[in-house]
Structure formats: structure tokens, C-alpha cells
Amino acid sequence: MAKSLASSLSLIYVLCSSRKSLLRARVMDFITSTAILPLLLGCVGLFSLFKLLQWLRMRAYVRNAVVVITGATSGLGRECARVFHAAGARLVLCGRNAEDLEELSQELAASRAPE
């Protein structure tokens, strides 16, 4: 009888300890699952803030600066002209084709003027 009582008590202890470990595992899963989302959102928010500040600083650096762009009639030079104009720079455009340069200057003048 004492032997069966001891085995019953050990069985109860095993069941309780397994429930406790299961409960601990569930609590840890809940904590990690609920902590990951705010941590992830915080990191995304900080990264977005960093990129915004970097963009504002670059925009302020280029504003009212004189930028000379060679080969502005097509390709990369044309895109650079658009980007620098949008950032508020004053442009000096150089290219081989005068008609394309005139077209680009009219396109940039028609776009929103930088503030």
C-alpha cells in the first residue's frame, strides 16, 4: 500500500510538473509572439524615420545648389535633371541636341516648381 501511495504521488507530481511546464511554455509562447510584433513595428518605424531624415537632409543640401548635368538630353542625364529639379536645385543642362534640351527645359518648367 505504501508502495502504491508513493507511486501515485510520483505520478501526480509528474502530471503537475508536466502541466506546469506546459503552462510555462504557453506563457513564453504568448510573450514572444506578442513581443515580436511591437519590436518589429518599432524597428520598421525607426528605419522609416531614418530614411525620412536622410531624404530631408539630402534635399536641403541640394536646394538652391547649381548642378551641371552633361548629356541631359537622354538617359541617365535626363533622369538626373528631373531628380535634381524636384529636389530644388538650379540646373545647367548640356547636351548635343538643342531641340531635346529645349524640350527637357520646357518639361521641367511645366512640372511643379520647387518651393
UniProtKB/TrEMBL annotation:
GO CC, alphabetical: membrane
One Pfam family of this chain: adh_short
GO MF entries: oxidoreductase activity
Gene3D superfamilies referenced in this protein's UniProt entry, alphabetically: NAD(P)-binding Rossmann-like Domain (3.40.50.720)
InterPro entries assigned: NAD(P)-bd_dom_sf, SDR_fam
Transmembrane segments: 35-53
Family, per entry: Belongs to the short-chain dehydrogenases/reductases (SDR) family.
Name recorded for this polypeptide: Dehydrogenase/reductase SDR family member 7B
